[in-house]
Amino acid sequence: MPWIGFLLGALIGASVYGFRGLMAGAAVGLVIGMLLRKAPLMRAAQASGSEQAAAKRIVALEQRVAALEAALARSGVESSPAAPTATPERAAEPAAGPAEDEDAAVPPVAMPVGETPSVLTQAPPSPVRKGGPGEPGLARAAPAATRVSASPASATPSLWSWFTNGNTMVRIGIVVLFFGVAFLLSYLAEHVTIPIELQFAGVALAGVALIAVGAWLRKSRTGYALALVGGGLGVLYLTTFAALQLVPLLSPASAFALLAAIALVSIILSLAFDAQALAALATLGGLLAPVLVETVSEPLPLFGYVAAVNAVVLGVAWFRAWRALDLVGFAGTFVLGLWWGHEYYEPAYFAVVEPFLAVFFLAYVAVPIVHAFRGASERRVDAVLIFGVPMVALALQALLVQGTRYGLAWTAAIMSTMYALLWLALRGTKISAPATLAVAFGALAVIFGTLTVPLAVDARWTSAIWAVEAAGVYWIGCREDRLFARAFALLLQLATGIAFLVGGFGEFAEPAFANRRFLGIAAIALAAFASVRFGDRRGESLPATERSILHLLFFWACVWWLGGGLAEIADHVSTRAQPHAMLAWIVASVAVAVWLGRPLQWLRLDGTVVVLLPALALSLAHDVAHGRTSVTEYGWVVYPAAWALHFTLLHRSEARMAARVATGAKENAALGAWLAAAHALGALLLLGQFSWEAGEWTARVTPRGTVWAACAHLAPLAFYLLAVARADRGATWPLRTFANAYAVTAGTIVAAALGMGFVALAVLNPGDPRPLPYVPLANPLEVSLALALGAIFLWVRRDARASVQILYRGLGIGAFIVLNGVVARTVHHWLGVPWQLSALAASRPLQAALTLTWTVAALAAMVVATRGRFRGLWLTGAGLLAAVVVKLFAIDLAALSGLTRVVAFLGVGALLLVIGYVAPLPPATKDSAHA
Predict the structure, then answer these.
(1) Cα 63 vs. chain centroid, distance in angstroms?
(2) DSSP alpha helices (H): ranges in 382-515?
(3) What angle do CA 847, 850, 851 make, to 5 degrees?
(4) Contact by Cβ (8 Å): 474, 494
(5) What pLDDT was estimated at residue 825?
(6) Is the separation of the CB atoms in 313 and 331 below 8 Å?
(7) How many CB atoms lie within 10 A of CB 146?
(8) pLDDT by residue (tens digit) across 855-877?
(9) How large is the C-alpha radius of gyration of the chain?
């Protein structure tokens, strides 16, 4: 609003650069306020002009219709059906404009209060007619006139309209004159030698003259009169204060007596004129007076004067609900106090300033109460005063008691108590406005009670108390269906966590789980759990957004509870034992939550199980990363308990899903997907733990660097695939209902891991079987590879849904890899060739052995293909023979020499002859079905 910009700019400018700053700040503030209101005010001005024109046209039409009907009634002529409507229209054409009917000329508009009643009262009363044509038109006109005169919006014109409506030049002139009087008083006090008493008396008489002229013109020139009266009152305010402060002409008692008299005159004139602008302008001038006359730093006269000005505001508020006046008094008083405190306040002034601050606070707390009881039907409660007054008062009080221990805490507690008493006093009323005030005062009591805690105790206890309060407020909000209370409680939950983190989350505390830090964390978590519980009991009656927030709040509670325990373990448990201790804390927390879910009938607690698998995964990853078995440091207790809890909860959830199927619950699809994922992930984690433990314990009892540990790592994976491939899916739980989770989802990942392990062992590992000797195909490595290959083959045949061609091609490739590894490892172990790629490639016995091995493998494949008429398999063997021949002449011819060359070439040649005889190419009859 422009007047707020004017006031704030004046006070800020005065605080920064004295009187010149005041002038510049007032001008800048006024311009900014005008710019902020420019568009709405332009629309309002246009609407106001059109409303006035329309209202005048309506009145003219009503007068003409009434005159015509009166003439008809006197002459006794009965009008025809068309007469009542046609004649008024023709008669009204000069005023209403061409081609406009009566309905178009009767918009539901509101006229300014200062003009509408006087115009409408000039219209003669319309005679009452019983039936007959034309009556509907009159029925439409009458309500329109009523709406024009009864609009409450026009009863309180804004301060801007005081400048723009009516004689604008006169009103702006009054403002300029007000500043001129301030300059005149300063100039007279410094330069003119006329007795100072006469100077001030002359200025005061000028103000009285302005008021007298305005009162004389009240009925004939209302707008002009209001401007004169407002200026006169401002002059009297200014003169009185200047006589008190600039020149000690008046004693404090005399000055305040005069101020009281001026206040009384202001009240009388404002009520007489029924002009909000007059009261607001007089109050604004009175509050600007201490700045304009360069007040001294003594607080008693200044705040005594401001108290007198506020008495005017309270007096008018008793009779009129004028929002602009209330806000001018509130903003001016507290901004002036803030400026004075910044410039002049000293601790020695506390005993004087504190009572005035309390009086101002109570006064503007009382204003909405007065309006609620005396003008409840005219306007709603003013949120700016209700919530702005205590916040501003607390800010000013903080400046006064900043050096006092617990001073602000006591202030917040007193304010909370006061608002609580007001809530108790107003809550039983049946009037809507006081009832709304009661709700607002109750909220303020809670807010200031909440603020008392951090102002009195440290952050940890603050968080604990706030958390409990938030849960209580949310419970009340749910019980009484108060959205504001629930929103406040949810925000307070967030504030508790922020306050705790800021105030000392990282501080070490003793003893474990029985210190201020953990108790504060537990309070935050339990209060959040309680709030979610209260909200869940309301169910679908809560808004959808709030129900979504409850999910986040439950996550927030879980994080605080689990995080608090983990922090305690990190501080009080040795580093080596921390992972298993943290897992134990999570397992115990989930177990207790699930156990409490049944007696509380709160199924949401079962959702805490989602943290179990991630906790298991992190703990196992820590054990693997540190190269240790998972059964140390009480892992032999923690892990079995965790897995037992995991599968117990899965079984329980499955039973619940079966019950929901009977009732047709819609959540089954989501629950089934979640359970399937939990089964698959749990199986993978448990299998991973078994695989790690098997290799770890095998490595502890076998020589270092042997193949036993690697084979032990692969064995659980192979046995898992064999188990799911051969198991009866419908006989046992959990395969009975989640077979795909174990056989397909988890099985795919296990088969991929086993396949990679198979290739890595077959190609890279030398297969040292110490303390046993190496025997081809009868050593732990080849046995493990055969087991892995067979497990993958059986699993793919049952669960991977691969074609027969792909299945047997994969089997053949795997067998070929194993066969080559057997040859290489035999040469390595029996002939002492180092297990290095360069040494193996340069080994003549290995090259000859590989050539013969490939030839024998090709022979076997082609013989089987011929007998089984597998054309594709025969072609594969032929391809392998081609590779043998290429290798024989491209590599072996140069690499081999002596007896090895003779053996290689003679052996290959003889085998080719045998193949040509016993394995001719079969006809193309079964290629479509077999490879």
Answers:
(1) 61
(2) 383-400, 407-426, 432-456, 459-479, 483-504
(3) 85
(4) no
(5) 93
(6) no
(7) 12
(8) 788 878 877 877 777 777 777 87
(9) 48
